Amino acid sequence: MNQQEGLLSVETVGKEIHFPLSFEEWEQKAAGMMQPGGYGYACSGAGRGETGRRNEEAFGKWAIVPRMLSDVSSGDMSVTLFGRTYKTPFLLAPIGMQKLAHPEGELASVKAAANLNVPFVLSTVASHSIEEVAAAAPTGSKWFQLYWSNNEEISFSMVERAEKAGYEAIVVTVDTVRTGFRETDIRSEFSPLTKGLGKANYVSDPAFMKALKSQDDDTIVASILENIQTLSLHWRHIAKLKERTNLPILLKGILHPEDAQTALEYGVDGIIVSNHGGRQLDGVIGALDALPSIAETVQKRIPVLFDSGIRRGTDAVKALALGADAVLIGRPFLYGLAAHGQQGVEKVIEDFVRETEISLSLSGVANLSQIGRIKMVRA
Residue 171: in which H helix or E strand, if any? Predict the structure, then answer.
């Protein structure tokens, strides 16, 4: 991969626009662009932030032992997921209500992802509907993230809409049977869902609208809040979903190897190792620390993807070396969106790709099929 294929090197960046480079710089720029409530919602985690800190600290506890004299001239970072090949092992993670970061919200993000051949995962609580996002990037690879509804017909309806609109996979988030205890949001009294910022997929859904007793804004918001938290969520719901769609189903939020084994038994098509970026249960194991045992359990029978704590290309290399087949970028691209819209998202992706490409070469790996050559040790 080279500049002619669309990547911007450090030397060529910023001739007209000064882009941030590190995650910290992007975060600082986003903080100055977003409203305080929206930024607090995006950057904070649950409780005292222990899980979020563990996510990032986990990467510092693993070290790469590189190989030399390996001929890495034939660099290839391509990965195949569910029959489609991508040039890089990255996806954009599902983040709801992206209008909190930029007026164009998910429309800018999905266009950026499509331009760089990166799958975009649309959140249930997006600022734009399934169909609007599909129309914005018709040739791009799109997956749909599902928060299971108490009224399961709403879940089935959204999945059917996604399938009709050309989405290629369903990502069921399983770690959000209720919203985590998020101190920052409580203190600021900021709740974007109660403000109706994540209603696009609901008000455009026939099953949701049919179930409403009234179609005033207060009733709509109350019904969304009622449906988005499903304390009864269980493996039986996954079995039902498999009967209702032909799309691959991935479970996002798996941290325990026994849950990974159960997922295999239920015929799940993929797993995303994640703790929701530290936004759900505080005190949880760092996602990277959970990855090796899950990869060992799965044994490449289905794809294992990873998110939570990814901040730069070297983080991606460590996750790939510890068993991930691909990596989801979350907060970094959201901050890119806040700072520079679609261009910012593209720049974040490009920097991830460039640093990952360089890091793989310097580790002695020419392509991802050789990732097992990288020895990882506890630092």
Answer: strand 170-173
Catalytic residue among 18, 237, 256, 276: 276
What is the β-pairing status of strands 326-329 and 304-306?
A: parallel
Q: Has 276 been annotated as catalytic?
A: yes
Q: Which amino acid is at 240?
A: K
Residue 63 CB neighbours (<10 A)? 12
C-alpha to C-alpha distance for 300 and 165, rounded to whole angstroms: 30
State the DSSP H helix or E strand holding residue 325, giving kind and residue range, or none if neither.
Answer: none
Looking at residue 78, its amino acid is: S
On whether the CB atoms of residues 126 and 133 are closer than 8 A, the answer is yes
Give, for 314, the enclosing helix (H) or strand (E). Answer: helix 313-321
What would the two tokens of residue 113 be? 């992802």
Contact between 279 and 253 under an 8 Å Cβ cutoff? The reply is no
- β-pairing, 142-146 vs 120-122, is parallel
Q: Which of helix, strand or coil describes residue 379?
A: coil
Walking along the chain (379 residues) 10 residues at a time, the average pLDDT comes out as 40 66 96 95 92 96 97 95 98 98 98 99 98 99 98 98 99 94 88 88 98 93 92 97 98 99 99 95 97 98 98 98 98 98 98 98 95 94
According to DSSP, residue 165 is labeled T
In this predicted structure, what is the pLDDT of residue 13?
46
| CA-angle at 22, arms to 52 and 8, nearest 5° | 135
User: What is residue 234's three-state secondary structure?
Assistant: coil
Question: 47-51 long-range CB contacts below 8 Å, 24 or more apart?
Answer: 47/180, 47/181, 47/183, 47/282, 47/283, 48/183, 48/282, 49/278, 49/282, 50/278, 50/282, 50/283, 51/275, 51/278, 51/280, 51/281, 51/282, 51/283, 51/284, 51/286
Q: Is 106:97 a contact under the CB 8 Å cutoff?
A: no
**In the prediction, which pLDDT does 20 show?**
95
pLDDT of residue 15: 55
Task: Encode pLDDT of 179-195 as tens digits.
Answer: 889 988 888 888 888 88
Domains of the chain from N-terminus onward: 3-368 (3.20.20.70)
Q: Note if the pTM is more than 0.85.
A: yes
